[in-house]
């Protein structure tokens, strides 16, 4: 199944400045129609899954921006409503995956690429639990628990998924066969043994990380790497050159990947090429 691409880069391409701490979640308040337009563009490009604009959306994050709690909760649930409304325009078995980004995304300091935040499991549970309940209550088809940098945070999220009994994919940010915090990816994937995790994999990583990750997965596999460029958290800019995921995706599908898409710097054109390549293969 073909996933969508990066939400933030598609919004930036439409002229939006996402440099504040709320990132793309700010547009849930300021320009929700633009988020709907990006979901629509990805479906038109061949994506079968819309990933909601909730990656960086949390009550705590909105509160820091001066948004009252009740409004923050409404904005988080609106991310699912927006995606569902666009999905319903298309139908045809398309899905809405409610994005659950890591705690490090709320910190907005690049720590989602490092993990080991120095907070307790209880603090992580207090952060993630209410947001999961809000997203599930809005009626997505599944959760996209994504860009998780370490096993410590994954353990908390897996326990919550089990308690809430809701389907999700669990996707880590990874490098060199390890989580970003340096734990073996095989050990991280082992946490996905619960029934609620319907797929496990990696995202927001270099394309060359994908094939080894597929080989390690013991469940249906979800992979959506970046374009090949590298994010520099210090300068808040992308460096390096991009690759064409469409050239690589057929081999990933042949190796057993079930869900394939793009993450940062992969836009509707890249998803269209990826979808066409998989279809041709």
TrEMBL record:
Q: Which branch of life, at top level?
A: Bacteria
- On whether Zinc is a keyword of this UniProt record, the answer is yes
Its required cofactor(s), as named, are: Zn(2+)
SUPFAM superfamilies, alphabetized: Homocysteine S-methyltransferase
One GO biological process term: methionine biosynthetic process
Q: What is its EC number?
A: 2.1.1.10
GO molecular function terms listed in the Swiss-Prot or TrEMBL record: S-adenosylmethionine-homocysteine S-methyltransferase activity; zinc ion binding
Q: What InterPro entries does the record tag this protein with?
A: BHMT-like, HCY_dom, HCY_dom_sf, Hcy_S-methyltransferase
Checking Gene3D superfamilies in the record gives:
Homocysteine-binding-like domain (3.20.20.330)
Kindly name one Pfam family recorded for this protein. S-methyl_trans
Q: Which residues bind Zn(2+)?
A: 204, 263-264
Every Hcy-binding domain range: 1-278
Keywords from UniProt, A to Z, are: Metal-binding, Methyltransferase, Transferase, Zinc
Instruction: List the protein's name.
Output: Homocysteine S-methyltransferase
């Amino acid at each position: 199944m073909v996933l969508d691409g990066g939400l933030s880069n598609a919004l930036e391409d439409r002229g939006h400045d996402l440099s504040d701490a709320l990132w793309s979640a700010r547009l849930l308040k300021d320009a929700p129609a633009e988020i709907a337009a990006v979901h629509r563009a990805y479906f038109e490009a061949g994506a079968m899954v819309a990933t909601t604009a909730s990656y960086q959306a949390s009550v705590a994050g909105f509160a820091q921006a001066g948004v009252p709690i009740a409004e923050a909760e409404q904005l988080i649930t609106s991310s699912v409503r927006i995606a569902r409304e666009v999905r319903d325009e298309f139908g045809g078995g398309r899905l809405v995956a409610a994005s659950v980004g890591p705690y490090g995304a709320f910190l907005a300091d690049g720590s989602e690429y490092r993990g080991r935040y120095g907070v307790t499991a209880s603090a992580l549970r207090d952060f993630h639990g209410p947001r999961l309940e809000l997203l599930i209550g809005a009626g997505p088809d599944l959760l996209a628990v994504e860009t998780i940098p370490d096993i410590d945070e994954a353990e908390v999220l897996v326990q919550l998924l089990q308690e809430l009994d809701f389907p999700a994919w669990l996707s880590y940010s990874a490098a060199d066969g390890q989580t970003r915090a340096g734990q073996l990816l095989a050990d991280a994937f082992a946490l996905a043994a619960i029934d609620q995790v319907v797929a496990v994999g990696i995202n927001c990583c270099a394309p060359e990380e994908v094939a080894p990750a597929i080989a390690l997965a013991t469940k249906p596999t979800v992979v959506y790497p970046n374009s090949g460029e590298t994010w520099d958290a210090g300068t808040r800019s992308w460096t390096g050159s991009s690759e064409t995921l469409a050239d690589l995706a057929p081999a990933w599908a042949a190796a057993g990947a079930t869900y394939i898409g793009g993450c940062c710097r992969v836009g509707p054109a890249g998803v269209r090429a990826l979808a066409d390549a998989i279809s041709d293969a």
